[in-house]
Amino acid sequence: MSILTPETRDLRATAVRWSADALTVDLSDGRSVSVPLAWFPRLQAASRRERSNWRLIGGGEGIHWPDLDEDISVEALLAGRGSMESHACLVAWLQSRRKRLSRRNAKPVRPAKSRRRARAHS
């Protein structure tokens, strides 16, 4: 049994924004739905850049964040459902994310120019 009425099934997301503690999705009927960001731990752990990289999917039936591998449907927001991800899966994702970010932020070490070579070019 679905709790959504035919009218709510036709609702689409049109825009997404967030604050330090809330995710807000604007809907096609003019309403906005705000939920605690804590309901979606991947979004809560994300950087501003990662949260900004989203796109509507299914013609607005949901939102996808490719950097976070996170999808949220309008239906879930209207039903008041947060992330269904298990704690173990979230911990594994956070660990993999930390490794990925540390590799991305590591600067390659360049060999120092020798003094002789530097003088030859002066």
Compile the SSE list and pairings:
Blueprint: H1 6-9, E1 13-18, E2 22-27, E3 32-36, H2 41-45, H3 48-52, E4 55-57, E5 62-65, E6 70-73, H4 74-79, H5 87-105, H6 115-120
What does this structure look like?
There is one protein chain. By secondary structure, the protein is of the alpha+beta class. The chain has one domain (6-105): Uncharacterised protein PF10387, DUF2442 (NE0471 N-terminal domain-like, 2-Layer Sandwich), CATH 3.30.2020.40. It is built from six helices and six strands, in the order H-E-E-E-H-H-E-E-E-H-H-H. The strands form two sheets. It has a three-stranded antiparallel beta sheet with strand order 1-2-3. The chain has a three-stranded antiparallel beta sheet with strand order 4-5-6. The model has no long low-confidence stretch (mean pLDDT 85).
Instruction: Report the C-alpha radius of gyration, rounded.
Output: 22 Å
N-to-C SSE string, H for helix and E for strand: HEEEHHEEEHHH
Q: What quaternary form is this?
A: single chain
CATH topology: NE0471 N-terminal domain-like
pLDDT < 50 runs, ≥5 residues: none
Structure annotation, total helices: 6
Beta strand count: 6
Strand content: 15-25%
User: Which of globular, elongated, flat, extended, rod-shaped describes the shape?
Assistant: elongated
How are the strands ordered across the major sheet? 1-2-3
| CATH first level | Alpha Beta
CATH architecture: 2-Layer Sandwich
